[in-house]
Write a structure and sequence with these properties.
352 residues; 5,6-Dimethylbenzimidazole Phosphoribosyltransferase, Chain: A, domain 1; globular; EC 2.4.2.21; nicotinate-nucleotide-dimethylbenzimidazole phosphoribosyltransferase activity; binds 5,6-dimethylbenzimidazole; binds nicotinate mononucleotide; 15 helices; alpha/beta
């Protein structure tokens, strides 16, 4: 708890003065004001986060948190639980979508076992920080104890702080966990007014009948657990997952160290909701990479006050949206460094 508490206490709003100075610099570059659209917002936000009017090009690290879900016993996913450890092995051998996209983005990929329901081998890319062999079935009671939820958040903080010490200046969050759209829907519906049907999607691809069943299971979980709305650890412990907690930890540590963090899809956004309930200033440090196909994602992002950059009809998770967004962040930073100003280039400025 101490590590979490200390991290929460270190989070402060980003530097809006530096953000403004960066926007003023961008307004003097050889283009009509505002014409680079979202790219300008990205650059100015990174400036506000880092406190540098001209932020340096960062070292990028994508953290992929893996964990299993007891609620899978209710038949809420199109895939069996064994796929979680099988995919972790795939990440370790470099063959998953996220491996390809992280390589493409020039990002380091760190895989964390924070709660996979199987033993995994030693591997240089794998951080073994298992808090439990998966969560308990949230349709029957709390998914985790409070202690487990906090331990998983703190695992995320530890991983992120280690990466920052190693020079990381931009994070992406991602996850792997069969059943985790059920947990994420429960968290999102809980915070967005309780409409499970509106927030619930097909995850890995359940059919209509299983979708109706998944909605009932989530409604049952909300009734059985009745989390305390003002206690985000209670919400996380009762409805969440170990990888969701781990990602929340990465986000909190990034914010505490003034490092920007790209949020991936629906599950990452559920983690972002928990982090934001623990300290609302954390959203200043988040950038939403893409809009997932999961129907609850838009509502979660709206509650977070984040606008996604990309709409690619993706619903994979793993951090794939963040890997796609990394080159956009780099492009935004390069605009700030490399574009000529009106004065430099001798181009006439329009009406002020
Ligand atoms: O990131 C997303 O928006 C996303 C949307 C749907 C599914 N997923 C991935 O699919 C898995 C969860 O799906 P499910 O059906 O088992 O709940 C998990 O490993 C996620 O990474 C991810
Ligand atoms: C194959 C597979 C890969 C995934 N990656 C993230 N979630 C996943 C779910 C499945 C089923």
């Amino acid at each position: 708890m101490e590590k979490l508490q200390q991290t929460l206490e270190r989070i402060a709003p980003f530097d809006s003065e530096v953000q403004k100075q960066c926007q003023e610099h961008i307004d003097n570059l050889t283009k009509p004001p505002g014409s680079l659209g979202v790219l300008e917002h990205i650059a100015a936000k990174i400036a506000g986060i880092t406190g540098e009017v001209k932020p340096v090009l960062p070292k990028k690290t994508c953290v992929l948190m893996a964990g299993d879900h007891g609620v899978v016993a209710e038949g809420v996913s199109a895939f069996p639980q064994e796929v979680t450890p099988q995919m972790v092995l795939n990440f370790l051998s470099g063959g998953a979508a996220m491996n390809v996209l992280a390589r493409h983005a020039g990002a380091e990929l760190v895989v964390v076992d924070v709660g996979v329901a199987a033993d995994l081998p030693d591997h240089p890319v794998l951080r073994k920080m298992k808090v439990a062999y998966g969560t308990a079935n949230m349709a029957k009671g709390p998914a985790m104890t409070r202690q487990q939820a906090i331990a998983a958040i703190e695992a995320g903080i530890t991983v992120a702080e280690g990466a920052i010490t190693g020079g990381t200046g931009l994070f992406g969050t991602g996850e792997m966990g069969i059943g985790n759209t059920t947990a994420s829907t429960a968290i999102t519906a809980f915070y967005c007014g309780g409409n499970v049907k509106a927030a619930c999607g097909r995850g890995t691809g359940v059919d209509d009948e299983r979708l109706r069943h998944k909605i009932r299971v989530i409604e049952t979980a909300l009734e059985v657990n009745r989390p305390e709305p003002d206690d985000a650890i209670d919400v996380l412990a009762k409805l969440g997952g170990l990888e969701i907690a781990g990602m929340a930890g990465v986000m909190l540590a990034a914010a505490a160290n003034r490092v920007p963090v790209l949020v991936d899809g629906f599950i990452s956004s559920a983690a972002a909701l928990i982090a934001a309930k623990l300290n609302p200033d954390v959203t200043d440090y988040m950038l939403a990479s893409h809009l997932s196909e999961e129907p609850g994602h838009a509502a979660a992002l709206q509650l977070l006050g984040l606008k996604p950059f990309l709409q690619m009809n993706m619903r994979l998770g793993e951090g794939t949206g963040t890997a796609l967004a990394i080159p956009m962040v780099e492009a935004a930073i390069k605009i700030v460094h490399e574009m000529a100003s009106f004065a430099d280039a001798g181009v006439s400025k329009g009406e002020e």
